[in-house]
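SAMPLE LOG
Freezer: B-3
Tube label: C17
Construct: single chain, 238 aa
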Amino acid sequence: MRKSGCPFTVRDYSIKIENKVTDEAVPVKGLSEMSVDVEAETEDGRAGDALWSEMFVKSRAVSGSLSGRPIYDRVTGVRDPGQALLHRAALSGGGCDNDQTLIIADAIGRAVKYDCVLTKETNAADEDGETIEWEFEGVGEPEELDYVQASEIAFAEGESASMRVGETKEFNVQFTPESASNRRFSYSIADEGVAALNAIDGPKLSIRAVGEGETRLTVKSMNNNLTATLTITVGAAG
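STRUCTURE (predicted):
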């Protein structure tokens, strides 16, 4: 007997896939929902309805799907690296190439490493745009990863930076240790008439210089309120 899990949003979750060649955990962008089916009758009889990680507890057969929208680089047209790994695995001819490892972390960084077989990729399009879905079957037992607390947060560029009106620069947020489980952060800019956020991509903040003056870019870790501040001085356009 199986119990079907309704799709749930993955907006606050981090989902990565391991690159078998480099052993790097690659984030999968563009995902919006995850659906999980869990075998209800298990050897240990646990109910498994309380915590998100209960969907991956030992002694349970799990299958499910990941879905969202296709992501491509606007300039090069290259597919998102995480989606590309899922794509190759799902469309491989079978065998070991279908076996992949997903790392699924909740909003505060608690994570499980989950071995699975990518069985299918489906593309669809409607008035809301294009969607993509990958189906998987669990293999073996999940591994709960140790939680590593961040002790420091800082900008790689230091505590100050200079820009000119109209210029855009990227600033990188670094966590200590690098293995910190929760690397999410919030940001604020004291005077957006001087500098404004252009985009965020993981630890990188793209900042656009708007007008002459000085302002402060502040980031704060999401779970223990560590802060780092960068003073940005904007001069006249060159």
